[in-house]
Amino acid sequence: MSATTMTATAPGQARPRAVTVSPVSLPAVSRSEWIKFRTLRSSWIVLAATVVAVIGIGMLVSYFTNTHWSSMRPAERFRFNAVDRSLTGVNLAQLTIGVLGVLFVSGEYGTGMIRATLSAAPTRIPVLVAKAAVFAVVTFVSSIVATVVAFATGQGLLGPHGVGWGTPGAVRAVFGAALYLTVVGLLGVALGFLVRSTAGGIGALFGLLLVLPVIFAALPSSWNNTVGPYLPNNAGGALWNLRGNGFQLSPWVGFAVFCAWAAAGLILAAFLLRRRDA
Amino acid sequence: MCVIEARALSKRYGDKTAVDGLDFTVRPGMVTGFLGPNGSGKSTTMRLILGLDRPTGGSVTVNGRAYAEHPAPLAEVGALLEARSIHTGRSARNHLLALAATHRIGRRRVDEVLDLVGLSDVAGKRVGSFSLGMGQRLGIAAALLADPGTIILDEPVNGLDPEGVRWVRNLLKDLAAEGRTVFLSSHLMAEMAQTAEHVIVVGKGRLIADVETADLLAGAGGSVVVRSPESDELRRHLLGPEVTVTSLEPGLLRVRGVGLEQVGETARSNGLAIYELRQEQASLEDVFMSLTSDAVEYRAGSLDGRAA
User: Which residue in chain A has the smallest CA separation from B54?
Assistant: First the structure.
């Protein structure tokens, strides 16, 4: 089969083919997924909300930290980390970007679009790979813009308490936060494929990111100290939370563990996507 | 050859059997109807053809291969499924552009099919604002996008106004005349009678008939209703080996197996008065009842046809 074009032969009387088509390929499916992403208004609304959350919350928190510095207790001042403070918005942004990841997939199941999608690419796996790739690129590009701006403006608003790019860990935290958001988005994509419904996918995402740590925090501390660091957002947080909680994995090990969570989700999703009826 | 071939095709969901050992072949150059009441396995069969559902037994191929094994599947089979498969938040043009991208089909073809189905003016509007009929037209545009040799449509006239119904009917006939395979499901016998040359009838997931539409209608179809003050005598003259007469009410008979003209002629030649004489189109239920009781006969008929 030629990689460029092919001309199918018509039955009976030779039917002239009016359209040139190419075999379905991963780049072609990726292009299709990019068109799908950018032609939904909700994509841009949620993406904008994510960027605004990172920058806006970072600016607000940094500004008020500076103005209230004199009234802060010593313990608060001790816990303060200028880099972390300017990236506070990532905690909210992880939820919006995760929801967008779920929606990018569950929206297709909810509307039935998935049947058209899988009819066009019936081997199915390219759909999952393309969706994940498109979403990862879009998320990383917008997240890195958001975290860089949040850091720069946040440090400015912290006034005398702000730090520069040269501070140890600053560059890692800023890039790390964008990487973290990207992987949260991929976790959302995986959950969208696994659960196939918006409500269920968002529920599962919030459960993994928010509820699981709370449950472990309620267990005996020996358990929590052993297992806690490996929970998704604790592990991923190790890369961009400079202050940490004392029980964190080292930054890149933590991030690797977080990536493993998302990878496990995507692999399970791929397996089930092949197996299940659409 | 653009053919669809099902061999012992079966699909169970849990302990419910939706499709039960279907064998059929859909051939090019004509419209083949897929007829059966709601819940008889038509939609499931179409999903199996497209590889959306996996058969629990048997197989179905398009042009000799499973759908998913075609490198450019949209160019082999275009499908309009009964359940909508369009994201409501996207415009009609963007929906088609996204599908077209998977096969690297150009923007010009997208505009062409939009024009063909009469949606050019609303191509930029969100699909969520579309009426049922417009949604069906967009689904048909998507099915025709890659100019496939085989077209599968599940209940395509649902939600269409009379003008739209006629448009679909003519479109399908044109597509078949171009040599394509057109496979069309419906639960409406009358619709099938006007569009399909050949019908495959299913009930409860099983094949009931695989025949020419004309044969189906002649054999199991219409009846003649006749009102006469001398109905008992008329009945005696009408009865024959191929003819059944049932009494609907005193003085009113339903005659099967002979045409309107023959009933009239029989009455005249015997000097019997007639107050009412009309053809009654067979309802789907009528066809089904006669088909299920005569299923063996129909299968035999279709086998003879194939051997010839």
Answer: A277
Q: Pick from A15, A24, A42: which is nearest to B102 by CB?
A: A24
Does the pTM exceed 0.95?
A: no
Contact between A239 and A254 under an 8 Å Cβ cutoff? The reply is yes
Query: Nearest CA of chain B to the CA of A97: how many Å?
Result: 19
What letters, b where the CB count within 10 A reaches 16 and e where it falls short, cover A242-252?
bebeeebbebe
N-to-C CA span, chain B: 20
Q: Cβ(B188)–Cβ(B288) under 8 Å?
A: no
Give residue B283's pLDDT: 57
What whole-number distance in Å separates Cα of residue B170 and Cα of residue A223?
71
Q: What is the predicted ipTM?
A: 0.90
Question: Mind listing the pLDDT tens digit for each residue in A63-111?
Answer: 999 999 999 999 999 889 999 999 999 999 999 999 999 999 999 999 9
How confident is the prediction for chain A on average, in pLDDT?
Answer: 92
In chain A, which residue's Cα lies nearest the Cα of B82?
A: A112
**Alpha helix (H) residue ranges in A41-162:** 41-67, 74-79, 82-86, 90-111, 113-120, 125-157
Q: What pLDDT score does A149 carry? A: 98
Whether the predicted pLDDT of A14 surpasses 50? no
Neighbours of A272 (CB within 10 A): 12
Structure tokens at A152: 């720069």
